Amino acid sequence: MQGWLTTALPVAVIVVDVVIRVVAVVLVPKNRRPTTAAAWLLAIFFMPYIGGIAFLLFGSTKLPRRRRTKQAQIDRYVLNATEGIPLATERPDWPPWFASLAALNRRLGAMPLLEGNSARLLGEYDDSIAEMTAAVRSARHFVHVEFYILSLDATTAPFFDAMEEALARGVTVRVLLDHVASLRVRGYRRTIRRLKAMGADWHLLLPVQPYRGRYQRPDLRNHRKVLVVDGRVGFMGSQNMIDRTYDRWTNRRRGLRWKDLMVRLEGPVVAELNTIFISDWFAETDVLLERAARQRVAPVGAEDLDCQVVPSGPGFERENNLRLFNGLIYAAQRRVVLVSPYFVPDDSMLYAVTTAAQRGVQVELFVSEIGDQAVVFHAQRSYYESLLEAGVVIWLYRRPTILHAKHFTIDDDVAVVGSSNLDMRSFTLNLEVSLMVRGRAFVDDLRVLEEGYRRESRRLTLDEWRARPFRTAVLDNVARLTAAIQ
Questions:
Q1: Which secondary-structure segment (H or E) carries 105?
Q2: 174, 254, 430, 463 — which has fewest CB within 10 A?
Q3: Which residues make beta-bridge pairs with 233?
Q4: What pLDDT, on a 0 to 100 scale, did the predictor assign at position 260?
Q5: What pLDDT shows up at residue 223?
Q6: SS3 category, 426
Q7: How many angstroms separate the CA atoms of 249 and 246, rounded?
Q8: Is the peptide bond before 400 cis (omega within 30 degrees of 0)?
Q9: Of the candidates 166, 117, 113, which has an alpha carbon nearest to the alpha carbon of residue 144?
């Protein structure tokens, strides 16, 4: 008996090994980018058992069918609800390509382009929290709070106090926070206790709680940052509701602090931003806040910005943000300025950026000199040589600040701000929200921010990059391979 086992076991291991490899060749490439498929196959062929199990756990980039069905319901609802309302009409000062990109966004994400909006940039961390807190304190009807990370600490305590005061006035306060992201920061239990004690109606986004029957691929996350007050004022951008050190002792030891950008919005686009919250609320609660969804906001301000909210993520069939970003970069005629803490593009974006530079467009990329996530940081660095060779100007925001803002400008007319990084995770795995804005005044305000970034940055040269240590180059290239595994 023992002899039979000694013979059969190695044979069984070899057979299973071969089966895993053959099945992987058939299944892995289906509906995946060639680079992503190649990375998965490489992992499976080198480590069949570990790679195979990892693929079963993390191979699907889609949310469960039930959630995707809900997103389709929301899209149909938005399309029907916006029929007949005044939409932005093409004007002589629009760039010739702008209308087609607005139409693309409408088809992919259901949100129309709306005129008559005003926007104010909030580029200082504490000031933006103070502005959001003040808005909540002025609430009379409802407050909708949605953050990738929501944490009660000394910096955010006034915001939590404002929510509690609003509830005491009879204001409805609804709160959404990403489960895994918020769970990973210190103070999660304290945060949940405070939400319960104040009586807020709160829910976890994309909870990973298999013991409660709630599970999906655990790294599919809701990365959005949205606040809407009474449907009249909205905030969105890159900033989480947490101390700028992320309340981690390792960050404090390194002196790390985050620099973000939020946008304060008024006008009809606030209703679109509220629809993002409503769709995520529906996904988690099965409750559609129809009354809030029907709310209309009159045009405001003298800026008269044309704005369009662009939702994206694994709940959609296509990569809405990536398609918009690539379309804008290809449309640029004079200048592109990209700001992203994590720049790990897929092939299509890399070609769009380098092609723009090679056809004479002035292309600048702002990234941080240091990183808070080692693998992503090294993967990002693996693209620098190709970018520099193409003529892209790379600015390294000086340590110890992490430039966490996410925005870019196209020529002098169009800009995008939001929660989306320029990386494969944000294109495929994260639920994101972006805002496309047409208006010279808004772009001019972003130019002022960009100039401030330049003063705090140093320019990376091709000669400096080529002289980096060999071991660093190896780390960068290995990290690039892992970034493609999605």
A1: helix 98-109
A2: 463
A3: 229, 266
A4: 97
A5: 96
A6: helix
A7: 9
A8: yes
A9: 166
Q: CB-based contacts of 156: which residues, under 8 Å, 6+ apart?
A: 129, 150, 241, 242, 243
Strand partners, 397: 368, 457
In the chain, the largest separation of any two C-alpha atoms, in whole Å, equals 87
Q: Cα 447 to chain center, whole Å? A: 22
State the virtual CA torsion across 301, 302, 304, 305 in degrees, nearest 10. Answer: -80
Q: Copy the structure tokens of residue 29.
A: 């490439």
Calculate the alpha carbon distances from 185 to 160, 180, 189, 220, 341 in Å: 17, 9, 10, 18, 19
In the predicted model, residues of the chain with pLDDT beneath 50 are none
User: Smallest Cα–Cα separation from 322: which of 398, 432, 213?
Assistant: 432
How far apart CA 138 and CA 243 sit, in angstroms, is 23
Question: Measuring CA to CA, which residue among 453, 443, 82 is closest to residue 263?
Answer: 443
How many other C-beta atoms can be found within 10 angstroms of the C-beta atom of residue 154? 8
Lookup result for tokens 């002196």: 255
Q: Is 485 left (phi over 0), alpha (psi -120 to 50) or beta?
A: beta
φ/ψ of residue 217, rounded to 5: -50, 125
- DSSP, residue by residue, 290-310: HHHHT------TTT-EEEEEE
| Residue 429, phi then psi, degrees to nearest 5 | -105, -25
